[in-house]
Amino acid sequence: MLDARARARFTRNRSAVAGTAIVAGLVIFALVGPLLASHGPLESDFAHGVGPDRMPVGPSAGFPLGADRIFRDVFARLAVAGRLSLLIAVSATLIASAIGAAVGIVAGYYEGRRFARVVSVDGILMRVIDVLLAFPFLLLVMAIGAALERTSAVTIFVILGVTGWMGIARVLRAKTMQVRSLDYVVASRALGQSAPSVMLRHVLPNVAGPLVVSATVMVAQMIVADSVLSYLGVGIAPPTPTWGRMLFEGQDYYAAAPWLVAAPATVILLAVWGFNMLGEGLRDALDPHDA
Amino acid sequence: MRSILTMRDALAPALLLSALALLGAPLGCDTALPSPVASSRGDETAPRRGGTLRLATFSDVRGGLDPVGTVDGISLGAIHLIFAGLVDYDEHARVVPDLAERWDIDDGGRTYRVALRAGVTMQDGTELTADDVKRSAERALHPSTPNPVGSAFANIVGYEAYSTGKAEHLAGVVVEGRYVVAFHLEKPDSTFLQLLAMHTLRPTCKTAGDRYSDAWLACGAGPFKLLPDGWQRGTSLRLVRHDAYFRPGLPYLASVEWTFNMTPIAQRARFERDELDLARELTGADERRFLADPRWKDLGAMGSDKTIYGESMNTRMAPFDNVEIRRAVAAAVDREHQTLLQPSRMSVLTQALPLMLQDDPSFAGQRYDYTAALEHMKKAGFPYDPATRTGGWPHPIEYLIYDQGLNVYTAQLLQQDLAKIGIHIFLKMVSWAAFLAIQQRANASPMSQGNWTLDYPDPSSIFDPLFTTAAIAPEGSYNTAFYSSPRLDDLVSRAHLEMDETARKALYREANALVCDEAPWAFTYGHHTFEMRQAYVHGFAPHPVWPLDVSGVWLDHAGQALEHVLGGGLR
Question: CB A71 to CB B11 under 8 A?
Answer without folding.
Answer: no
